[in-house]
Structure formats: structure tokens, C-alpha cells
Amino acid sequence: MLPTRGTRSAQPEDRRHSVAPIFGLCLLWQPFIIHNIRRIPYHKGMNSPSGTQPVITPDLDSEGAVPREPGLTRALRRVSGAQLRPDNTLTLLQNGPDTFDDWLAAISRAQRWVHLENYIFKADQIGRRFADALSERAAAGVPVRVLYDWYGSWDVPSRFWQQ
Q1: What is the distance between the alpha carbons of residues 69 and 42, in angstroms, rounded to a whole number?
Q2: What is the Cβ-side half-sphere exposure of residue 56, based on CA atoms within 13 angstroms?
Q3: Tell me, what DSSP letter sits at residue 60?
Q4: Alpha-carbon distance 93 to 71, whole Å?
Q5: Average pLDDT, 10 consecutive residues per value, the chain (163 residues)
Q6: SS3 state at 48
Q7: How far is CA 130 from CA 20, 44, 73, 91, 157, in A?
Q8: Between the CA atoms of 23, 29, 31 and 33, what dihedral angle is there, to the nearest 10 degrees?
Q9: CA atoms within 13 A on the CB side of 122
Q10: CA–CA gap between residue 72 and residue 68 (Å, rounded)
């Protein structure tokens, strides 16, 4: 059917012209966005160039609870619903390859459960050590749960997880 007088059909070139201003604005803003992303300051701690993190040494009250909560302490309390108590220890593990022995030792000492969360698993020598340690704990009757990232572990064969 032909268009009647006073009406006009939308042609592909008309649509192209209506998108052109939006595309032009995107091109104009691109240098500003890219330039300003580099200006975002590093947060002290995890993202600092030196890789060091501040040590949290809170003052404890008479009941052993932390009265003034630094940011990390407050975040942990909100997530877990538990107060920090004295006589607990925390070891900061900074580099993966250097900390695998500590992880494996903790897995081998587990008596109640093992919950392991890791984003990248490989079916290599280190991955085999973890699989053997987790299998040994499971054979000892310790419940074992592993949470891994699908994308970070995409090349691990399914038989690796069946163990």
C-alpha cells in the first residue's frame, strides 16, 4: 500500500539520522569518562598501590565487645550478626601461592566442617592437592562444601568435581 498524502513511512536513513546525535554525544563524552576513571583515588587498604592493608586494633570494653567499630569490624558484624570477641586470632594471607599450605593445613585440621569458597580452580598440581585434602576430610566424616565460580573454573573437567 502506498502512503497517502500527508503521511510518510519511516525509511532506514531517517532512523539513522535520529540516532546520529546520540552517537555523537557518546563520542564526545568518551574522553572525559576515560580520563576521569583514572582520577578515582585508591582506597586505603585493599586497593592501595603498595598492597598493604591497615591493621585493626580495636579497644575492647569490659565485656570483650568492640565499642567503636572500624569499617571492617562493622561490616563483619552486619554480615554475620556476631560481635567480635577477644582471644580469637586472625592471620592475613596476602598471596595465593604463599598461602596454599596454610589453607591445606586448616582443611586437614577441620573437625566440624569445611566450607571452601574460591573463584578460580584449576585441575593442576595445586588443585589436586586441594581435592585430595577435601576428599580426605569427607572420608573422615567431615561435611565438605565447595563454592566456586563457573567462569573462573570453566576448564576444570567434571570428573574433578565428582571426587
Answers
A1: 22
A2: 19
A3: P
A4: 19
A5: 57 63 77 64 49 51 57 76 71 79 93 90 90 94 91 85 76
A6: coil
A7: 55, 33, 30, 20, 15
A8: -120
A9: 3
A10: 11
* Cell numbers that stand for 113 in this block: 566442617
Rounded to two decimals, the pTM is 0.49
Amino acid sitting at position 75: A
- The DSSP annotation for 68-121 comes to S--HHHHHHHHHH-----TT--------HHHHHHHHHHHHHH-SS-EEEEES--
Residue in the block written with cell 546520540: 22
Burial of 123 (0-12, 13-18, 19+ CB in 10 A): middle
Q: Which of 89, 87, 57 is nearest to 73 (CA)?
A: 57
Domain range annotation of the chain: 91-162
SS3 of residue 62 by DSSP: coil
